[in-house]
Specification:
Blueprint lengths: L2 E5 L2 E2 L2 E2 L1 H12 L3 E7 L3 H9 L5 E5 L9 H15 L3 E5 L2 H13 L3 E6 L1 E5 L2 E8 L4 E6 L6 E5 L16 E4 L29 E5 L9 H11 L2 E4 L1 H5 L20 E5 L5 H7 L4 E6 L6 H4 L2 E4 L2 H15 L1
Parallel strand pairs: 1-4, 1-6, 4-5, 5-12, 6-11, 7-11, 13-14, 13-15, 15-16, 16-17
Antiparallel strand pairs: 2-3, 8-9, 9-10
Helix pairs in contact: 3-4, 5-9
Length: 320
């Protein structure tokens, strides 16, 4: 039976959906589910992780883990991986995960695969599916000669089990070592938006160059408010300064996989498709019937987005 260690990510003492997915798939594998949580809300996160199957959770509530610092995290996480005797480590393909776990894997001389969209367990081994060539193909990836298999999963790819509040976890408090840090995090300026992060969102309304100017994104925000969605954008409009780069979806932005992706005025360049082609349902709105986005869309609306989007907003208001 394998030991599967899940790295917990949360916000405001609540588990991110991507973490719930990882705990659920680990529980369903039949292996022993372990977890690790770092930061001031580690105890609260550990209690919630138990509801999704974590049998033992390694934590550190030290305030120095409040913000991500690779100098501190890499050594400490590597020590927890060794202490837990994990065969498989699961993390989210978030900006934190993609920076942290290749470093940890290198330190432990093990393999790491990121941006995975599927996973299958077989004893101590694991096979993952990973999109390649900007999403044109999918590779089945196995680990060879890797004592620990590090897997980073994209969000919204796996089924979340129903939480069982009757379950509990053994909490193991781990004291961080004294480390001479090369980098000190003084302050992190966070977005004031209350919207769900793009990588966690179930519904995304995204705009491209067809929006014509920054002020027109208000149309998308109004539709997003009705749907409970998050607003995204193509690289072109982010580079133009219309919206922050934190909203960028694509090969050089964020990779997303919502249940519903509404693309407004986005032509469908391959770099953008690479970041959102895993969406369950894609609705494209474009006045060019030959736009490449229609080849990937589930539903296509050929028309002026400035007519279509307000009408969609009004219709959704009637039913939601």
């Amino acid at each position: 039976m394998s030991n599967i260690l899940v790295f917990i990510e949360g916000a405001n003492s609540e588990l991110k959906n991507s973490t719930k997915e990882l705990l659920s798939v680990a529980k369903n594998s039949g292996g022993k589910v372990l977890a690790m949580a770092l930061g001031p809300d580690a105890i609260a996160l550990a209690e919630k992780a138990a509801h999704y199957g974590a049998e033992k959770t390694f934590i550190s509530s030290d305030n120095q883990f409040e913000n991500y610092n690779p100098d501190l995290f890499v050594t400490f996480v590597a020590d927890i991986v060794k202490q837990s005797q994990a065969n498989i480590v699961l993390g989210s393909s978030s900006s934190l995960g993609k920076d942290l776990f290749p470093r940890v894997a290198a330190k432990l001389e093990s393999g790491c695969v990121s941006d995975c969209t599927g996973i299958e367990f077989s004893g101590d081994n694991v096979t993952v599916k990973k999109p390649i060539y900007a999403g044109k193909c999918t590779a089945d990836v196995n680990f060879e000669n890797s004592a620990v298999k590090f897997v980073l999963m994209r969000a919204n790819q796996l089924k979340i089990n129903e939480a069982d509040s009757g379950l509990s976890t053994e909490v193991v408090e781990v004291t961080p070592p004294t480390t001479d840090l090369k980098t000190l995090i003084k302050n992190i300026v966070k977005s004031t938006s209350e919207k769900v992060d793009l990588t966690e969102a179930n519904i995304i309304v995204a705009g491209g160059r067809g929006m014509k100017e920054a002020g027109h994104f208000k149309l998308l925000e109004e539709l997003a408010d009705v749907l409970g969605a998050t607003v995204g954008a193509s690289r072109a409009v982010c580079d133009a300064g219309w919206v922050p780069h934190s909203m960028q979806v694509g090969q050089t932005g964020k990779t997303v996989a919502p249940n519903l992706y509404i693309a407004c005025g986005i032509s469908g360049a391959i770099q953008h498709l690479a970041g959102m082609s895993s969406s369950k349902v894609i609705v494209a709105i474009n006045n060019d019937p030959e736009a490449p986005i229609f080849q990937k869309s589930t539903y296509g609306i050929v028309g002026d987005l400035f007519d279509v989007v307000p009408k969609l907003t009004e219709e959704f208001k009637k039913v939601l």
